[in-house]
Amino acid sequence: MRADLTLPFSTLLAFALVLARIGGAFAFVPLPVKEAGPGSARIVLAMAVAVALFPVWPQIRSDDASLGLFAWWLLSEAALGVTIGVAVSFLSEALTFGAHVLALQAGFGYASIVDPTTQADSDVLPVMAQLVAGLFFFSMGFHRLVISAFAYSLTKYPPGAYKITGDIAGAIIQLSGSLFAVGVRLALPVVALLFMTELALALLGRVNSQLHASSHSFPIKIMVTLVMLATVLTVAPDLYRSYGEQIFKVITNSILH
C-alpha cells in the first residue's frame, strides 16, 4: 500500500522563514573559501541547518499569513540573520586587518597570490589570515555557537517580531571598533620591531657611509617579520577566542536580548 507524503502549507511557510534567517547569516559567516566553492553546496548547507532546527520552528497559521505580511516576515527574518552574520564576520576581519597592517610595513605587498574567496590577486598575509581565521572558527567550535544562537532566536523572536533598534546598532558599531583594536594588537609587536630595525639600519648607514645598508633592509625586514610571525601565532588563538567570546556575548545579551 503506497502512502502519500504531504506537507502542510504552514510548515512550508515556517521553513521559508527559517531559511531566510539562516541564509542572511551565511552570507557573512567566515566559512573557508565560501566564494570559491559551488553555490549549490552553500544552499544545501543553509537548508540542512534550517532542517536541523525543525524542533524550534515557529508555529504559523496559514490562514492569517497574507502575502504582504509574509513579505514583511521575510524582511524581518533576513535582517536578524544579517545582523548575526555581520557580528560573526568581525572575527575573520580582525585577523585580516592585522595582516594588512603588517604586510604594508613588512614589504609583503610586493608579493600577491590568488585569493580563494574572491579569485583575485591579493597580498600574501591577508589571504593566509583569512584561511587561518576559518580554521580557528571551526576548531574552536564557534560554528556550534552560531547554530545555538539561531535556535535561541527562533524561540525568542517569532516571525516579524525582530527590529533593529538603536541599542543593537550601537552594539554592532562597538564591535566594529574592537575589530581594529584586535588587528592592531596582533600587528603592533611586529610593526614596532620593524620600526626599530629600520632605525638601526639608518643609524648604521649614517655612521658608515660606505656601507649600503638600504640594499639589505628588505631581506632583513622579511626575515624579522617571519621570525616574529612565528611568535605572534602562538598568542593569536587565545586572542581570537577571547574576541569570539566577546562577540557571542554581545549577540546573546544585545542582539537577541
| Shape, per Cα inertia axes | elongated
Helix content: over 70%
Radius of gyration: 24 Å
Classification by helices and strands: mainly alpha
Instruction: Give the DSSP E fraction (strand runs of 2 or more residues).
Output: under 5%
Largest sheet: 2 strands, antiparallel
Overall pLDDT, averaged? 77
Low-confidence stretches: none
How many domains would you count in the coordinates? Answer: 1
Please provide the ordered H/E string of secondary-structure elements: HHHEEHHHH
Total E-strand runs: 2
Distance between the termini: 50 Å
Q: How many helical elements?
A: 7
The strand line-up of the biggest sheet is 1-2
Keywords, please?
mainly alpha; 7 helices
How does this structure look, described?
With 257 residues, the chain is mainly alpha-helical. The chain has one domain (9-255). It contains 7 helices and 2 strands; from the N terminus they run αααββαααα. A two-stranded antiparallel ribbon has the order 1-2. Strand 1 and strand 2 form a beta hairpin. Helix 1 (9-26) packs across helix 2 (39-52), helix 1 (9-26) runs parallel beside helix 3 and helix 5 runs parallel beside helix 7 (214-255). The chain is elongated, with a radius of gyration of 24 Å. The model has no long low-confidence stretch (mean pLDDT 77).
In short:
The chain has 257 residues and is an all-alpha fold.
Tell me the layout of helices and strands.
Layout: H1 9-26, H2 39-52, H3 67-106, E1 112-114, E2 121-123, H4 124-139, H5 142-156, H6 166-207, H7 214-255
Helix pairs in contact: 1-2, 1-3, 3-4, 3-6, 3-7, 5-7, 6-7
